[in-house]
Amino acid sequence: MVKQIELDLANVPREVILILQLLKKDNHKLIEENSTNIFADIDWNLFIEQAKHHRVFPVLQSKLKGISNKLIPSFVFQNLLLDYKINTFNMLKLSAEMERVSKIFIEEEIRLLFLKGPVIAHELYGDISLRTSSDLDFLIPLEDLNKAEVLLQQLGYEKEDYIKTVLNDWKWRHHHVTYFHPQKQMKLEIHWRLNPGPGFEPNFEELWKRKSKSKLTTYPVFFLGKEDLFLFLVSHGARHGWSRLRWLLDIHHMTEQDIDWGKTNKLLKKYHIHNLGAQALVLSTKLLNSKISVDMKSILENRDSCGLAQEAIFYLERMVNLHTDPVPEDISRYHKRHLISLMSGRQKVLFYLSVLHPYSEDAETLPLPKQLHFLYFPLRPVLWAWRRTRKHALP
After folding, report:
1. Ranges of H-type helices in the chain
2. What's the gap between Cα 359 and its chain centre?
3. Pfam families per the record (predicted)?
4. Which of 33, 129, 240, 366 could share a disulfide with 88, CB 3.0–4.6 Å?
5. Measured distance CA(40)–CA(60) in Å, rounded
6. CA gap 9, 207 in Å, rounded
7. Angle subtended by helix axes 305-317 and 329-342, to nearest 10
8. Do residues 167 and 376 make contact, with C-beta atoms less than 8 angstroms apart?
9. How many structural domains is the chain composed of?
10. Does the pTM of the predicted model rise above 0.85?
11. Are 249 and 146 in the same domain?
12. C-alpha of 185 from chain center
């Protein structure tokens, strides 16, 4: 089935195509044989910019070592090598802080599961220097959130996110809060959900039972079990449109892990993200030459996989950064439509029902005493229409 799928890459920049060629598995011989075409008309400054945007420069610098200097300017090697060294130092710092935080939290009887960062780099790439991370993300039980906040403040971290909420919708609409250490220049994200809601996902107790223990550190550091990690990386990458190739490279490395794909297939269906798993495997196979085993084929038996994979190419055609506001209007509109297309039927029903639940904007539009917040339910359509009218009335 995957062999029959062809993705349209006609509008993807040549620099991104070259990056994909370099990242592909077992592609070195093909690059040598077609070097004249592959390296022709490359804007090397843009190549460096794309490599940094997609967060794949650590792997690229190792791939470029075997390429002739006649094909690639020396300043490209030097630039990527410098960033590689800076990233290695940063990953070592994050590794030390990860172990420190894990030790302190466990001593205070707070269980935590690291979601990304050095622990994932070591598990998937075998070398923390080959993956980038800007912060540490970990999941804890919701009931331990206040206790964890006090702990982090004692460690010198300051809370960055102050979530606006009404009727406690933060517990399911949001999924993490950010803390920053001004002296260490280090950021932590505490998650109580894997992804923002509304949506279906395993609870902390399920994830804890299936957890893995990292071999990177001396003190115990726990992270998601292989099947749960695949689910998380798939849902996280899809939610961001696979706008950074690093997330897809993670999936590529996951296909080479010893994973129970039958169990993974059941989990994808249970939590209504089977189409996301199929999309990820199609993209990984077609763009990075990932090998699909017989056990993975059950995941690819999804009628939406090809269409969703092609939709994701939109983000490779542009240098999309969904984390920096303001996001251009055309990209924002496309992304909203794409997120809807990623949803299963039950997810769409849940999403549209959640729109009826009051938002913090409703409380800002019409402040009411807390004991009257229940009135925001019947008032929501009126307040929404009022905001729309005011928005269009403004010059």
Report:
1. 14-23, 28-33, 35-38, 44-53, 57-64, 74-107, 118-125, 145-154, 170-173, 204-209, 226-239, 245-254, 261-270, 274-288, 297-300, 305-317, 329-342, 345-354, 360-365, 376-393
2. 25
3. NTP_transf_5 (PF14907)
4. 129
5. 18
6. 37
7. 160
8. yes
9. 3
10. yes
11. no
12. 22
Of 297, 275, 273, nearest to 285 by C-alpha is 297
CA distance 291 to 252: 9
Beta carbons of 23 and 59 less than 8 angstroms apart:
yes
**CB-based contact 313:305 (threshold 8 Å):** no
Query: CB of 67 within 8 A of CB of 38?
Result: no
Segment holding 189, helix H or strand E:
strand 186-191
Q: Above pLDDT 70, what percent of the chain?
A: 95
The answer to the question of residue 81 being in a domain is: no
Instruction: List, for residues 201-228, the tens digit of each pLDDT value.
Output: 999 999 999 999 999 999 999 999 999 9
Residue 370 lies in a domain: yes
The whole-angstrom separation of Cα 374 and Cα 368 is 10
- Gyration radius (Cα) of the chain, Å: 22
Q: Are residues 191 and 267 in the same domain?
A: no
User: Which distant-in-sequence residues (6+ apart) come within 8 Å of 159 by Cβ?
Assistant: 149, 152, 153, 177, 178, 179
Q: How would you classify the pairing of strands 158-159 and 136-139? A: unpaired
How many whole angstroms separate alpha carbon 190 and alpha carbon 141? 10
State how far the Cα of 252 lies from the Cα of 233, in Å rounded to an integer. 11
Angle at 275 between CA 241 and CA 190, to 5 degrees: 55
Those residues with Cβ within 8 angstroms of residue 390's Cβ, 6 or more apart along the chain or in another chain: none
pLDDT of the residue at 32: 64
User: Average pLDDT of the chain?
Assistant: 92
Provide the domain limits for residue 382: 358-393
